[in-house]
């Protein structure tokens, strides 16, 4: 029994690390989504998003065999993130080229609409992370003789616990990113580039869905793609930081 518990503990650590890695890029998206709200509402939006994510992650473990059939979930998430990124970069470029044109401030999404967008983004992110968790957890030996949602109760418990810890990590990471964007406004373009790159990630997952088969089903989980994704993401973040430091020095002169 001790060996089984150790195996469960090890898989839980692996799931927490996996969720932590996924939380990094997801948190940037969350931070960008709530950034336009007043500071007090930013924290509330992230908190309500956290509560919704708890509920969804729990329900998704029951429904994962159904959810995986709907490639449209990740396709919608990919399209929205790419649209948000491209639109921001286009608007910023237009404003820098025509500074004399003063446009009326555009109406931003309200509090509850923003919370809904955060929830929908989490749904798009969650499908892939839950699939990865299932793939790891199903290798564990069964504990007990009953199932939850078609999954052994022990396996279900470790997946749920790993997912919940990951959601908490994402929420606190998002709050930190909000503070960074407030402190260094010049990093906003880099943040939106990351949002677009995460949209590409979801697009790759969609195209690799077994019902579409545009690219090989295994490609999104291959070492080549994972290394490429993180190299580009870190490169965008580093480039944004260097540009931000350069702009800050210019402004202080």
How would you sum up this structure in a few lines?
With 253 residues, the protein is mostly helical.
Could you characterize what this model shows?
The chain has 253 residues and is mainly α. It is built from 7 helices and 2 strands, in the order ααααββααα. It has helices at residues 2-34, 39-67, 72-97, 111-137, 153-183, 188-207, 223-252; strands at residues 147-148, 151-152. Strands 1-2 form a two-stranded antiparallel ribbon. α3 packs antiparallel against α6. It is globular. It starts with a helix and ends with a helix.
Q: Could you give the topology of this structure?
A:
Elements: H1 2-34, H2 39-67, H3 72-97, H4 111-137, E1 147-148, E2 151-152, H5 153-183, H6 188-207, H7 223-252
Helix pairs in contact: 1-4, 1-5, 1-6, 2-4, 2-5, 3-4, 3-6, 4-5, 6-7
Terminal-residue CA separation: 66 Å
What are the segments in which pLDDT stays under 50 over at least 5 consecutive residues? Answer: 101-105
Order of helices and strands: HHHHEEHHH
Strand line-up across the major sheet = 1-2
What's the total helix number? 7
Q: Helix fraction?
A: over 70%
Hey, roughly how much beta strand do the residues contain? under 5%
Please describe the biggest sheet, giving its number of strands, its sense, and whether it closes into a barrel: 2 strands, antiparallel
Q: Determine the structural class based on helices, strands and strand pairing.
A: mainly alpha
Beta strands, count: 2
Radius of gyration: 20 Å
**Coarse morphology:** globular
Query: How much is the average pLDDT?
Result: 77
């Amino acid at each position: 029994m001790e060996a089984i518990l150790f195996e469960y503990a090890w898989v839980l650590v692996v799931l927490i690390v996996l969720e932590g890695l996924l939380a990094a890029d997801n948190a940037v998206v969350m931070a960008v989504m709530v950034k336009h709200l007043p500071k007090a509402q930013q924290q509330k939006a992230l908190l309500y998003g956290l509560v919704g994510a708890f509920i969804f992650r729990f329900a998704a473990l029951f429904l994962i065999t159904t959810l995986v059939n709907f490639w449209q979930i990740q396709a919608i998430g990919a399209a929205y993130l790419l649209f948000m990124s491209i639109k921001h970069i286009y608007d910023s470029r237009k404003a820098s080229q025509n500074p004399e044109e003063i446009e009326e401030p555009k109406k931003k999404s309200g509090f509850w609409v923003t919370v809904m967008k955060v929830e929908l983004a989490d749904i798009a992110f969650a499908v892939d992370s839950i699939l990865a968790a299932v793939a790891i957890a199903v290798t564990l030996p069964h504990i007990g003789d009953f199932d939850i949602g078609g999954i052994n109760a022990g396996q279900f418990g470790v997946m749920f616990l790993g997912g919940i810890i990951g959601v908490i990590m994402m929420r606190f990471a998002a709050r930190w990113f909000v503070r960074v964007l407030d402190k260094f406004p010049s990093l906003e373009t880099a943040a939106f580039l990351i949002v677009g790159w995460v949209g590409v990630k979801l697009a790759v997952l969609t195209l690799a869905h077994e019902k579409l088969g545009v690219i090989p089903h295994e490609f999104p989980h291959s070492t080549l793609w994972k290394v490429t994704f993180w190299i580009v993401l870190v490169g965008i973040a580093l480039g944004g930081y260097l540009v931000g430091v350069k702009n800050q020095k210019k402004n202080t002169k």
